[in-house]
Amino acid sequence: MALDGIVIANIAAELSEKLTGARISKIAQPEADELLLTIKAQTGQYRLLLSAGASLPLIYLTNTNKPSPMAAPNFCMLLRKHIANGRILRIWQPGLERILHFEIEHYNEMGDLCRKDLILELMGKHSNLIFCDESGMIIDSIKHVGAMTSSVREVLPGRPYFIAVTQKKWDPLTTSEEEFRTAVFSKPMPLAKAVYSSYTGISPLIAEEICFRAGVESAQSANSFDELSQIHLYHTFGLLMEDVKEKRFVPAIIYENTGEAEQIPVEFSSLPLTMYGDTSGTQTTVSEHRSIVDRTSAAPHYSIRRFGSPSEMLEQYYAMKNTVTRIRQKSSDLRRITTTALDRCRKKYALQTKQLADTDKRDKYRVYGELIHAYGYGIEPGAKSFEALNYYTNEMMTVPLDPTLTARENAQKYFDKYNKLKRTYEALSELVEETKAEIEHLESICAFMDMALSEEDLVQVKEELTDAGYIRRRYTGKKVKITSRPYHYVSADGYDMYVGKNNYQNDELTFRFASGGDWWFHAKGAPGSHVIVKANGTMPPDTTFEDAARLAAYYSKNREAGKAEIDYVEKKQVKKPNGAKPGFVVYYTNYSMTIDTDISHIRLVSD
Questions:
Q1: What is the pLDDT of residues 517-563, one digit of tens each?
Q2: Three-state secondary structure along 364-417?
Q3: pLDDT tens, 301-315?
Q4: Which of 155, 220, 353, 584 could be 145's S-S partner, Cβ–Cβ 3.0 to 4.6 Å?
Q5: pTM for this one?
Q6: CA-based angle 213:217:219, to the nearest 5?
């Protein structure tokens, strides 16, 4: 989700506490739309990142330094001229707008004390960093916005600064019950949308949370609620705004409970999200430099990680989001190669199966030829057909004839057609199986790319595509270094369970690592990981079988379905046919179970 006004209020409270009265030591502009301020306060030195990026506007305190260009950009040089060594007097947010003002005091070239205003607007593609004098006139901005770009407001040197009002929205911190009921419940739209479209700084997430706390249906039309429900929602809304006014913030990230080493964050917020199971009270205190992972208070499929500061929360959230984005970017070329090959194979498979279906009439031509041989003596010259008893079915059959050919020549014509279709059937049957195996192989590669959580996980996937001939191998003289290892889980009963991250690891686990008495699990009829349970000469209990089945269900293409059918068998029953693709196995006897994909309770071991 994007930054909303409540998270900005949390940031403003943190920065006011730590940076008020502090001096700006260094000003850098590492990116075209980003500033990094080094600020010295009595409590220590801080780095403040201010980004006006269109796709990811941000502000938070960080310990990470970023390299700057050799020549500082003009905006950076301007700030250094005016506010280098300046003192921060106040940091404030107008209402719940996604805007932060930094009032800075400094001495000019004449030695006179002056004030400037550095304004960060965090508004998606309209985000900007604007530098103004004490009268509110724009000195410069990191992005210039002229009349040709915006008809609402120009952001250019010499223009007055004002907040562009493009929508009529109320201030949630000062609204009355009458205003609330008029603004929200008069709109013929879903209730949650009516809330966030009526008030500044309220995101769709918070609107959903307000509806959840009030116990009303967020998708129901706002103008259909009775008076009692309207009053109840207003009071719920008011209690939430009281938390904001009193700065009772609990910054936290919500993760989906997957049990993986690197979980993907779902949402973040500066107020408790009870719809995800966050029941933390407003009196909860957290150590400023320590985060807490609370799995007991979360809903069954989510975990909550609370932070001592919004800066820490934002830095962690976007670092993890960037990791996922980077993996997607790194795998984009592999995905393109794989999907191109998969589309080509599917088209080829459709054509081959159609041609194979056309060979189904080959036996009919053979029967025609045999019947002509058997009863040809009674066929009159020039006949176009004749009736004969089909001794295979004991039914009468009409056999078409070419009147220009003799009975013997008609029979030979049908035998020639039969032999041609027979050869075609034999050749196509083998080709269809090869193409089907190739499709299954490529689908499994796609599934494993979706499961990849690090760049190391992609190395073996790329190697597999190279070995299969989809990528041309470049000989650099260096051997490809493989650092990715299978997942290692431990069941509640103490049994070790291993999960392959790709087809090569599946083969390694099944045919080199596992022994005959170990147990093997795999999603039925779907690409996915092989799961090995090390039995160590014993029979694992049912709970371990269920945990292993859940792992096989989760690490398969059927993950999103919530449930999957799993085949499991002793490893000694699993065989690999000669010439089979990586990860492909056969087994002729097995057990099956249908299981959910929730692996949050299974312990992952970091080997």
A1: 999 999 998 999 999 999 988 999 999 999 999 999 999 988 878 78
A2: HHHHHHHHHHHHHHHCCCCCCEEEEEECCCCEEEEEECCCCCCHHHHHHHHHHH
A3: 678 889 999 999 998
A4: 155
A5: 0.62
A6: 125
